[in-house]
Amino acid sequence: MSKPIISPSILSANFLNIQADIETLNRSEADWVHVDVMDGVFVPNISIGFPLVKQVAEISEKPLDVHLMIVQPEKFIKELKDMGTMMMNVHYETCTHLHRVVQQIKDAGMKAGVTLNPSTPVAMLKDIVADLDMVLLMSVNPGFAGQKFIPQTVNKLKELRQLIDTTGSQALIQIDGGVNLETGKLLVEAGADVLVAGNAIFKAPDMVDMIHQMKNL
Ligand code: DX5
Ligand code: ZN
């Protein structure tokens, strides 16, 4: 079993001193930085906008993994590319023409991820999974950090692993929501490639050590 990719979610960072938190991530074993953008329409919360994402991109030494919980995410492909986004991740539920959006993201030179809400079945991705660089399974309802992990995600993850393996897709499997050392271990055992964690990392007494522990689950 290879080590999971760790993508700390800065939704749980200290926004009054985000530079300090990003610098801590820079010297940690974190692989990516997970950035949650919310619009108050698709999800019942508003988080950060592109001016802040751009400044985070400037000081982060880790690639940006941008999780867009917004309607019409395709409007921002160029903007995200220009600020150096590595992974642009859109929700299945927000894209009527998902195939087109995925192609546009890839044509712009970014990796394309698609996220499923907890109630959206894995089977909805059957005809597009081969084109994806990553699938994110939400293990909480999107909108807030610090929620409780939905245990059904583990079965869903096994189903996705099977779909990916049978279609020859190279997509990584990312899990987001309520991930900590305990749930993270179950997820890695079930075949997760990327773990996102907000509260478990940013509320830990020692972030660098927590990231090290997650990396070595
Ligand atoms: C929720 C966000 C998550 C969240 C994770 O809508 O997509 O990335 O910040 O936070 P924790 O790990 O605290 O559940
Ligand atoms: Zn997220």
Fill in the keyword field for this structure:
TIM Barrel, eight-stranded parallel beta sheet, 8 strands, globular, single chain, binds zinc ion, about 220 residues, 8 helices, about 20% strand, alpha/beta, binds D-xylitol-5-phosphate
Uncertain segments: none
Strand content: 15-25%
Order of helices and strands: EHEHEHEHEEHEHEHH
Q: Share of helix among residues?
A: 25-40%
Largest beta-sheet details: 8 strands, parallel
Number of strands: 8
**CATH level 4 superfamily:** Aldolase class I
**Radius of gyration over alpha carbons?**
16 Å
| Largest sheet strand order | 1-8-7-6-5-4-3-2
Q: How does CATH name the architecture?
A: Alpha-Beta Barrel
- Mean pLDDT equals 98
CATH structural class? Alpha Beta
CATH topology: TIM Barrel
First and last CA, distance: 10 Å
Q: Structural class of the secondary elements? A: alpha/beta
Unique bound compounds = D-xylitol-5-phosphate, zinc ion
